[in-house]
Amino acid sequence: MVEFKRSVCPHDCPDTCGLLVGVEDGRVLSVQGDPEHPFTRGAICVKVNHYPERVYSPLRVLHPLKRMGPKGAGKFERISWDQALDEIVHQYKQIISDSGGEAILPYSYAGTMGVVQFHAGHPFFHRLGASKLLRTICSATAEAGFAASMGKIPTTDIESTVDSDLIIIWGSNTLSTNMHAWPFFLEARRRGASIVVIDPYGNRTAGEADRHLQLKPGTDSALALGMMYVIIKEGMIDEEFIARHTIGFEQLAGRVEAHPPPLVEKITGVPAAEIERLAREYGQAHAPYIRTGWGPARQLKGGMAMRTIALLPGLVGATHKKGGGITRSTSPAYEFKMSAVLREDLAPSGVRSINMVQLGQALTALDDPPIKALHVYHSNPAVVAPDSARVLVGLERKDLFIVVHEHLMTETAQYADFVLPAATSLESTDLYRSYGHYYLQMASPVIEPMGEARSTLAIFQDLASRFAFAEDCFSETEEEIIRKLLASGSPYLDGITLDDLQEGRPIRLNVQENIFSKGFGTPSGKIEFYSQSMTDQGLDPLPNGEPSADEEGQGRFHLQLITPPRRQFLNSSFNEIEYLRNQAGEPTIMINPKDAATRGVEEKMRVRVFNDRGECHLFAHLTERTAPGLTVIEGLYWPRFMPKNRGVNQLTSQRLTDMGQSCAFHCNLVEVEPDTSLTPSV
Ligand SMILES: Nc1nc2c(c(=O)[nH]1)N[C@H]1C(S)=C(S)[C@@H](COP(=O)(O)OP(=O)(O)OC[C@H]3O[C@@H](n4cnc5c(=O)[nH]c(N)nc54)[C@H](O)[C@@H]3O)O[C@H]1N2
Ligand SMILES: Nc1nc2c(c(=O)[nH]1)N[C@H]1C(S)=C(S)[C@@H](COP(=O)(O)OP(=O)(O)OC[C@H]3O[C@@H](n4cnc5c(=O)[nH]c(N)nc54)[C@H](O)[C@@H]3O)O[C@H]1N2
Ligand SMILES: [Mo]
Fold first, then answer.
1. Minimum-distance ligand to the CA of 135?
2. Are residues 84 and 116 in the same domain?
3. What's the CA-to-centroid distance between 574 and ligand 3, angstroms?
4. Domain boundaries, position 393
5. Considering the entire predicted model, what is its pTM?
6. Are 215 and 202 in contact (CB under 8 A)?
7. Are residues 174 and 240 in the same domain?
8. What is the per-residue pLDDT across 516-534, written as a single tens digit (0 to 9) for each?
9. How much is the pLDDT for 682?
10. pLDDT surpassing 90 at residue 492
11. How far apart are CA 660 and CA 306, in angstroms?
12. I want to staple 308 with a disulfide (CB 3.0 to 4.6 A). Which of 37, 221, 357, 455 is the partner?
């Protein structure tokens, strides 16, 4: 008989869905949404709907494997756990005695968002004295830019937006990447709100919106300043709110003077009349609301872009209007006692940090000591990290020892010396926060681990015991760790216990109806139009409308390229599912018909896309959904499913953004030409 068991989606997505998993005779038959989850309400995405095909994928790694052939050739033999861990420990000890602990680099990100497993390697690598990894690849810039204006605080509850009368979706493909927000926006629309999308291309969400402002990538700060110009000039500001809850209005108003809509049109490509119209709607709405995505921040000046967008609510008092406000992330409300889990105190003082965005550089150019061992888990850097050509040169180094824990035989795993089989979320215990809603949920295993798969925590505890590390953290169970996490004293977690969580249902945090009612998280406690902390970082204290630009190859490569997510994949995950690959279709580049015509490119033609960093091959899709001068590649296909085995991150750069040191994934210049090499398509 099929039994339905509660679980939680572990993937890196704001929605953190409640799941009901159909299990019979210890086998997962189906994965559905849990109708009792108040935010996700029984709906799940097409990806997780196909989860059984991931759990039982022919590419699933079921046993520890040791490399047999040359690096990257994908030839492995099955070995025992003891042999694998003994040999890894032997190598690490050798490297530490030859070159010091810093020659070892952990590389992990958000394969699972479970708080326990996500952080399970931190104490081990700190105790080992390994180089620290700065986990900046995704949200660090958005977070830092937003924090300069409003502080590092939780933001508007998406559920409250049903009372908004103007919803601006600013650089988020909500329908694909945060789909459970959409029903709340639709309810607001049913009650009279309009939905406006601000995005460089006509993504799925723009297709369903009332209006789409198609700005040039990297010009958000200018656009927001243009809106401020109209709001201030036409007297639509909330003076009382500004006096009580903000600082620096006079300086801001001075800066805004230089951004009249006709000038902003030249920078952004958005017609001045459209800027004026949106500014008036925003200034006059009863409860204007902004959903910011991560897109505006994936630019070289992305921190400034997010900071400027986050100042708009301050002009009109939107944060204190029911239904209004701004949502970036909800995660700052999950105030766990992280120090007990991270154990940074175990790290030797002064140990170096390496930014994960610059993996290519770290593996090929770093000295004193060079990286001798790379330990990858919860991430697929051969595909997701920028500047793949450099990353691959690094991974191919014969003197680099690589360990990869994975569910699947990914591109990265193929370079490993040892591949360790990882348990999925359906096979392990964890606690899940969300960055899109305010429900905390715990999941216990619903099936036994497949093959010899083990959880991240179990693997690191076994490695620690081989090093004879004696601290408590190397022997605690998931439940003990969760209990520690909850004991932070945070009012948001007040009253939530392990016992409650073990029942498996989502539990709402103690968030007040207006999340901003306690003020803002900046040094002044107010929204900072003028920011001293920006000055302290050597940055402009006021919003600055200069656009972001890829400086490499200007004048030679004439098309901008953005590389946003695709509905059927989650970053590089879900490529393993044939159904989703078929749904995604062949990898394509969207190009405006005008740009295609001048390059002799026709619909469905195979093209070479290139710049100084690298090249990849895709199929052209000629469409007005992208403006002249802009190309779009949606989704991270595994290189093995791309012509000539080259992924899109061949084209992106390791340069760091202005704030938070993240990656400018959407700030690239490329050229496109017909692919004259006649290899048949994949
Ligand atoms: N189906 C699916 N869902 C996902 C993911 C996935 O890969 N697939 N990824 C997950 C992860 S890890 C994350 S972080 C989130 C990301 O979710 P999003 O924020 O939706 O993704 P982004 O890549 O940041 O791109 C968002 C939008 O920003 C636009 N954009 C690019 N440059 C600019 C710019 O300069 N200004 C403006 N205004 N817009 C710009 C892009 O065209 C895109 O439509 O989604 C999560 N959900
Ligand atoms: N060009 C371009 N590149 C991008 C982006 C973009 O928009 N454009 N988006 C960026 C963003 S927002 C992000 S967040 C990063 C994401 O980068 P990653 O965090 O590396 O994301 P995934 O590609 O999903 O790879 C996660 C891997 O972890 C594995 N995994 C999942 N669960 C577990 C587990 O429990 N244990 C172990 N051991 N492994 C597990 C999965 O099988 C998968 O191979 O990519 C970035 N890269
Ligand atoms: Mo991300």
1. 2
2. yes
3. 15
4. 65-137+338-508
5. 0.98
6. no
7. yes
8. 999 999 999 999 999 999 9
9. 46
10. yes
11. 12
12. 221
